[in-house]
Amino acid sequence: MAASAPALKNRLDYKAPDFLSPEIYLEFDVRDGETFVTATTRIMKNGQHNNPLVLDGRKLETLEVEIDGLPLAPVTGYEIAGETLTLHPASDSFILKTKVKIKPEENTALAGLYKSNGLWCTQCEAQDFRNITWFIDRPDNMASFKVKVIADPSEHVLLSNGNLVAQGPTADGRHFTLWEDPAPKPCYLFALVAGKLDHIEDTFTTMSGRDVTLRIYAESKDKDKLDFAMDSLKRAMRWDEVNYGREYELDLFNIVAVDYFNMGAMENRSLNIFNTVYVLAHPKTQTDSAYAGVEGVIAHEFFHHWTGNNVTLRDWPELTLKEGLTVFRDESFSTDMGSAAINRIENVQYLRAAQFKEDAGPMAHPIRADEYESINNFYTSTVYRKGAQVIGMIKTLIGDQNYRKGTDLYFQRHTGQAVTCDDFVQAMEDASGYDMSQFKLWYSQAGTPIVDTSWTHNALTNQLTLTLTQRPPVNKPNNLPVVIPVRMGIVTSQGRDLPLNAQGDTSTVLELTQDRQIFVFDNVPAGSVPSLLRDFSAPVILNAPYSDDELRHLMVYDSDGFNQWEAGNQLMLKEMLAQIDQAEAGKPVTVKPAIIDALRDMINRPGMDKELLSLMLSTPGYGILAQKRAAINPEAIKAVEDAFTTAIRTELASELMALYQANNLQIPYSYDVQSVGRRALKNTALYYLCADETVKDPALETLAAQQYNGADNMTDRSAGLRALLRMNHKSGTATAALNDFYQTFRNDSTPLDSWFSMNVTYARKDAIQVANQMKQHPDFQNASPNRLRALIGGVVSAPNAFHNKDGSGYQYIADEIVDLDGKNPQTAARFVDFFADFRKYQGPWQDQMKAALTKIAQQPRISTDVDEKLKKILGADYPRKPAAIIAPAPNGP
């Protein structure tokens, strides 16, 4: 069955709902093969009108419809057409009762109520509550929920939102729980979990002295991996009290970890549902980066309790109101929990790799977009990550105290309401007195602004004149100038920060609001170097005419940790881009001795932060290099990456071995800043030492094998295994280690996902063949989204396979998207992003990517999620065809 393509939805067309549902009572009769959902809803007309009541629903078999106790008949009493049920109520306020049957076991999209791996679970954001029952499914329709869950006693955990008010056996030998969440919430925050789960429990005492019960649920085999998540939750709750004055007001807070989940996590009010990746943490099964992910995502979802739940969004184009703000909050929390510089560097690395790429391509959109087809495609790095940077700029411009006043005012005004980004910005303006008129362009303009800089020094007056110029990106030439806070300092030739005012401040924030502005600094000694955009104070592309010597000076002496790393990053990036030109011209690729000398200087610098040094030794990745090219040649980029890795390995071999030995301490695992930095530096050294598959060095193979076999933690164990696979993935030692890894962790989902990915990625040019073999593996059957991402990501991470000129890599991904689209459109649509910048590739690669995209677009049936992205990416080359968008299964009578 086909349906016409969905129309664009426009933010500016917002209209308040004709009816509101302030209260709903849901009863779930959960049975194998089918679930019956009875919804009793108080409905009120919103304003004066004679419009019918239109409810949203999808794949529902409708069994009963009543108004005020009177049954209605199909057609004469109500009408079902597509995804709507329409009624013509006679009164302005009434009780609507519906009963539907759904089949969670058949819900492979994992949207609404679904059953996977023996567990019933929900995911309702953005518009999937309609897969559960008929309802006004929009965020500005807020209801208080009472929920009864009935199931067989074998499903001993029955959870929903709010506080547990009753539980016990039923007359027919089953059991129930009754939950009440008194505060009104949008239906996208509804949650239900039922199944066989174990849990840990703790108590948190709030700042007003109330005790809150905390529980984290998982499968019994994973119970020993929940303690770190619990500690992270308690830290997040205290941090939110201290930094935002926000206290959790319910008696219970639950987290459930599930393997089968499309998202990273979901902030359902008082019942957060998490992908296991972001809950489970144990030294033997999770890496240091996984620990950081758990801490950050636990905090993110808890922080949504106030920024997203207690104050929610009016409609979906306002998504960055909750997501951008909450990402900023979780990034700030992680900064306070760990190293400020490392957190900022890693956040910016992700922003540049994902969001800058998005902003430069056909998928570019403002953080608050005016138009969309599928809201599922709006969960982007722009909305989340760039949205967070916009909040950060507000805080930078108005100052910490005014920012806190602004958030206090925002919560005071809007708790219990569904609001907009304008409401948040207005609170900031009212609290600070700062005119936000021009700043609000960040909410409406797509693209990454470019800031060009130049400076001169007058030796007679000791004045440094700095010129800043902003211009719009090439793909958005009509953008207006925005407010750009440029945090900066000046580093003298002696390596000291120069005081910039009478108070002795060594950093200041310049406000760039015009096309071009000039700033003059007095008493600046000759040879001083400006340190620009400290702490990456704005999400812009900065062009600064630093010489190599000036960059090396900042690498050593800049007091801003981010800019210290950035100087080395720019030094490396500049040279790598020059060598890509050489490779494309068929000339030999070389690495300037100055690059190696700069890295050697950092290695030998006393007191250097170990994790920062680890990051400074790492070269810019493929994605960053590709972004900087007008026309992308994957082979040339790969040749330069390999050349730089080889040069670092050979020229710094003795230094790398010394780093490895100095940091290879045989001490018990601990997750703390110092230990994480030590492991990061050791494993970066091991990466380089074992990076070249053409070098057959038994001593290095033994070194890597010893690390794998002797490690007491997953960080070191996986680094040792990857080192073996890099040197020779077919060697007996590597094969034995890979087999041992599988046998050891076959019952642990996260390490097993990594095992699938490593098998594919390190097969290099044979990655597709190995991926097809892996799909037949018993542990890949009924694969979770995590496992699918591991396998397909493994192919994309093998450039010799993915970017093969014959197009086989692109065709493989296209076939996977087609296969997955009918089962799980959200996940399939995310894989389309691998082709988003296909027009930037040189001829043969561009042609093959286009062929793969066209193949997907020409399928007889295609989801809205995938189709919307194809239309944006292909543009004029989108193959016009009769509408063949996948229609929902028809609703029953």
TrEMBL record:
Transmembrane residue ranges: none
Keywords, comma-separated and alphabetical: Aminopeptidase, Hydrolase, Metal-binding, Metalloprotease, Protease, Zinc
A GO biological process held by the record: proteolysis
Alphabetized GO MF terms: alanyl aminopeptidase activity; metallopeptidase activity; zinc ion binding
Matches recorded under Pfam families: DUF3458 (PF11940), DUF3458_C (PF17432), Peptidase_M1 (PF01433), Peptidase_M1_N (PF17900)
Domain called Aminopeptidase N-like N-terminal: residue spans: 23-189
Annotated Peptidase M1 alanyl aminopeptidase C-terminal domain residues: 548-874
Main enzyme class: hydrolase
Domain Peptidase M1 membrane alanine aminopeptidase: 228-439
Family: Belongs to the peptidase M1 family.
This protein's name: Aminopeptidase N
Gene name per UniProt: pepN
